[in-house]
Design a protein that fits this description.
Length: 113
């Protein structure tokens, strides 16, 4: 049993390391460009609602690049304020306040209220 628990821990740590490296690369690419934000709601197998975040920008060749940032749990209340707080935390490394040029919300019905 110890070996199995240890393998799960190692696997989770490896996934976190890869995710951190990938996010650093995305931050480097998008940080200096105007970019867009997409938030979509999804429900997992346990019926827990999560929001997925995708960032998009245009590279120097004029091609659109979209990068999946992850799934994020907002809160039980799922208000527009909670979505904003979650998105602001994800976007913080991008110094987004002057570079965010587009937003799209699919399934996030609270944003249309």
């Amino acid at each position: 049993m110890f070996l199995v628990e240890n393998q799960k821990t190692i696997q989770n740590e490896l996934i976190e390391c890869i995710s951190g490296y990938r996010n650093d690369k995305i931050i480097t690419k998008i940080k200096n460009s105007p970019f867009s934000l997409q938030i979509d709601d999804t429900t997992d197998i346990t019926q827990i609602s999560q929001s997925s975040i995708i960032l998009g920008c245009v590279n120097s060749q004029g091609l659109v690049i979209e990068r999946f940032m992850g799934f994020y749990y907002v809160s039980a209340g799922r208000t527009a304020e909670h979505l904003f707080i979650m998105a602001a935390k994800v976007l913080e490394p991008f110094q987004y306040r002057h570079k965010l040029v587009g937003q799209c919300y699919d399934g996030a019905s609270v944003m249309s209220r």
